[in-house]
Amino acid sequence: MELDIDLEQPWSGDNLLQLAKHASDAASKVAPELANPRLSVSILFTDDAEVHALNREWRKRDKPTNVLSFPMLARDELLDLATDGPPEMLGDIALAHETCAREACEKGVSLEHHAAHLIIHGLLHLAGHDHVHCQQQADEMEALEIAALAIMGIDDPY
């Protein structure tokens, strides 16, 4: 999977670029549909104000949130995607710095570990996984997140 990373203030550091790659590799190991070499994902590290605006415009929720994901392929399209061919945009992910930093502090984890969790969470959403409509799906998605984080050497966040 190719990642297009946009790093805005107040985020900083080259380690976020490596973190995003490591998280996408781990997600691809637990959700093999993400391992298709044709896939491309855009990740925006931004602030609460930008994520709030995106959430209001696209999700009709007038508040910031930690991560947003915007899939461009339906799950069946992703599962049917051949490995040969032109690049395919899987979707976009946006992380809000202030919310992520606050949540990391509340959980007693590093911002990097929390961001890795949210990147994996966003990638699983792009792959068609869900945790909102059904408890079984939520449990399955949580298990995938825990497994991907374990690959990265990050403890179970739940």
CATH fold-level assignment:
Collagenase (Catalytic Domain)
The CATH fourth-level homologous superfamily: Metalloproteases ("zincins"), catalytic domain
How many domains, as an integer?
1
SSE ordering: EHEHEHEHHH
Note the main sheet: 4 strands, mixed
The N- and C-terminal alpha carbons lie at a distance of 27 Å
Give the helix tally.
Answer: 6
- Please report the total strand number as a whole number: 4
Strand percent estimate: 15-25%
Corresponding CATH architecture: 3-Layer(aba) Sandwich
Principal-axes geometry comes out as globular
Mean pLDDT: 95
Show unreliable segments.
none
User: Percentage of helical residues?
Assistant: 40-55%
Coarse structural class: alpha/beta
Strand order of the largest sheet: 1-2-4-3
Radius of gyration: 15 Å
In the CATH scheme, the class would be Alpha Beta
Subcellular location: Cytoplasm
Cofactor: Zn(2+)
Organism: Allopontixanthobacter confluentis
GO molecular function: metalloendopeptidase activity; RNA endonuclease activity; zinc ion binding
Kindly describe this structure.
With 158 residues, this protein is of the alpha/beta class. It has a single domain (2-151), classed as Metalloproteases ("zincins"), catalytic domain (Collagenase (Catalytic Domain), 3-Layer(aba) Sandwich), CATH 3.40.390. The chain has helices spanning 15-30, 48-59, 75-80, 97-107, 111-126, 135-151, and strands spanning 2-7, 39-46, 67-71, 88-96. Strands 1-2-4-3 form a 4-stranded mixed beta sheet, sandwiched between helices. Helix 1 crosses helix 6 (135-151), helix 4 (97-107) crosses helix 5 and helix 5 (111-126) crosses helix 6. It is globular and about 40 Å long. The two termini are 27 Å apart.
